[in-house]
User: Fold this.
Amino acid sequence: MLAEIFSDYTLRIVSIGSILLGIISGTLGTYAVLRKQSLIGDMVSHAALPGIGLSFLIIGSKNTEWLLLGAFIAAWIATIIVNTIYRNSRIKYDSALGMILAVFFGFGLVLLSYIQKIPNANQAGLENFLFGQASTLLERDIILMAIIAVFTIISVILFWKEFKLLSFDSDFADIIGFSTDKLDLILTTLIVIAVVVGLQSVGVVLMSAMLIAPAVASRQWTDKLSIMIILSSTFGALSGVIGTIISSSIPKMPTGPIIVMVVTIIAFISMLFAPKRGLIWRRIKDYYNKKELGANMVLNNLYSLYKNHGEDFHPHDLDTICLHHTGIIHSKRMLKRELHKLEILGLAKEYENGNWAITQKGLDKMESIFFEDGRDIV
Amino acid sequence: MSPQLEIQLIAILVATSCALPGVFLILRQMAMMADAISHTILLGIVLAFFITKDLSSPFLIIGAALMGTITVFLVETINKTKLVNEDAAIGLIFPFLFSLGIILITLYAGNIHLDVDAVLLGELAFAPFNRLVINGVDIGPKSLYTMLGVLILNILYISLFFKELKLSTFDTGLAAALGFSPVFIHYSLMTLVSITAVSAFDAVGAILVLAFMVGPPATAYLITDNLTKMLILSPLFGIISALSGYWIAMYFDVTIAGAMATMVGIIFALIFIFLPDRGLIANIRRRKEQKYEFALISLLMHLINHENSPIEREEAGINTIKNHLSWDKEFTQEIIDKTLDKNYVYIKDEILKITDKGREFALSNYSYIVEQD
Amino acid sequence: MEDYIVKVNDMTVVYHKKPVLWDVDLKIPPGLLMAIVGPNGAGKSTLIKAMLGLVKPTTGKTTFWGDSYEKQRKKIGYVPQRGSVDWDFPTDVLDVVTMGTYGELGWIKRPGKRERDLAIKAIEKVDMLSFMDRQISQLSGGQQQRVFLARALVQDADIYFMDEPFQGVDAKTERAIISLLEELKNRGKTVVVVHHDLQTVPEYFDWVVLLNRVIIETGPIDKVFTEENLKRTYRSSHENLYRKRDVM
Assistant:
């Protein structure tokens, strides 16, 4: 497992794998998040473990396809059990989810510990499923992922309006004749496949992040579902590639944690800086709005002084201009700064004794603001 | 004390300590938050270790528990931004923190290869640092006393704040109006969960913690929704799961923690399926019966309504009644047969008439069915 | 008036052993505005949902023009409660209204120009044209309600079911909605509305269903919407049931 030296080939494989994973989990994660089923990924990835173990025990091969098949079946059964529990008792969805997650995973551990005792059974391969080791991806794994990615994209395109409707208003979907049971089945199956496929790169514990973080990130940048899906895929893919490169340069570092850090950071950055929704973006905009308001206020004052003196470009001293201040301008120094800004824009002019007056250009600007806003600012 | 006995005792303490706050977790729908906490305390342990450089420092537990509280706080903060929904907030934070923990361990934990057993069974934090061979199933008496302390803490907390917990769980608005800060209850409960999780984590691993915090309470909830009864049943189921899990693990020579978690599931499944009256099998049977039951009562009430009225011949005639009940022919016949069978009804002049037995049956069932909650 | 388009027979809906609806018989005549009223928990929403197949009844069936719901889907429009969706979903007004055409398109087919035009017409009808490209999270309560309404209008149904469409809307929107419903009625459509405001029932509606887990009374407003009946409706259902069955 000392994969310190990367041949180009490995890097290539891993990058492609990451990109494919990003596409799959980004796309399907978008639906999971929109349907408020974010944590289903966590449950599925943990529930997959006994499937992997059983598959190895029964078939005896560590070929990814078999392990993934076992993982898929186990996860799928877990999903059905969760639904059965919360539809047929007063146990709530999150409790059912958490319990099945822990129970299945525990059972998976039982199987693993059993396997450990079998001579010749090398734990290492199965271990990688915990935290992910993208460098173990083989060409055949990539091919499998590619098939799944294509399948996912086709499904999403084919059932575009159906999935959208299902996620937005499933009751209405039922009413107009789309069997939500069937659609839910398709979507959930795809999600289970996505999670299972991602286990190799990111591992059991962290796979849920690959479904959630890219979707959270992309939501901040757009209000259109189509763009959201494309962005999610991109973020997912990007994190995969960057994460793998970084983790490969650190000895013994599994890829999962690094990829997750990268994608979560992308999500945080999006939540802070994306236009319109970003928290810091909003603060900065408010700040500039205020500043602009400040400058406008000063120009306003100059304008009213102009008007009050019979439309005369007579300059006034700072105190007079200050008299009109509305609280945004707090000090003479701040006033001077604003005036100088206006001067740069040619809207005000400083006279000999430190007095200021509005210019013709400033007048024109005021008139234009009047008409633009349609309200009386003076 | 033999190691076997020690282990089982610790297991009982763990099961009980987890099952108690777990009751509130599932009632408040915080199960997945507990899942998150059980992962993020790893980071807490790592950070605390970096500061104290001492494995046996109690500060480790405090630091890790603190991490749990911080996790809750971070999730709440993200929730407040309204940019993300609640479940996504949880799914965003805990993998991030957990990854951080793993990265730190890998970077600063020397050459120790992460052992599967270690990760899953709780020695994750210590295996990389601690050179002693720690057999995954052998737990020293230190844990015994730690868990005892934690159990006492849980019992104290729940007893002390019982009415506040009860109120804020079932009626947040009222709780706030009465001055019991739901926020305080929320954070203090989650901190308790963190402390419990950390101590149990040390003994039996992250996964078992979650299993015990959610499974036994859920099993109890299937049986009753009375809080006090749940607080008794939940640890009971926890203990049964723990002990049976231990013995199965011994027999098959597999991981104890995993076996216990599996038993949690199996016991839940047994109750879920076979519980008389509320279990799955009982439900399926009842749904089938209900259709007939309601139809039966409808028929009888129909007869009562039109008893001795001028249109009785039409309303209750054996051939015409199906028109008035709007059932199809076969179903109507089936129900009529049932009523005849049970002597609720007799036929006179081609009219169905209700017997006293039938009258009694109909009225008592009717009032039961339509009783307000 | 004997020509009923919707018939509900013997409908009982049970939730964990307790009936939410018990033995409901209902006949809906065409071409009028009908209100379903009753106290909280009376099963009003459940009634509509059970009729439309969203909830499975324990017994009973509903026919639309003598046929099952599945066969008559295209003639049935639905406006759910506003709180039933997450309005932060990434979609705009036009998109949501276009969803009303999905039923006719069937599986896989994409909405095209025809569907878009239909949607725009419906948006115009509810006076939301200038908000067509607006993200739905930026709409007020009344605007959201209108979007749902438009979506139902696109379905061009013969009967519309609406669940509390006046809940939490401003007066202007309420008036707009009511005039829209009047227009539908004039075109021969039927509108069934779960309504929460007793004051406006006589003003807005022609027909009323008084429901409190059982049907208390149903019929034309002037005959049925009386103080006596309302008292019965808003009393405990236990008493009602005995009264109705006359067994005391």
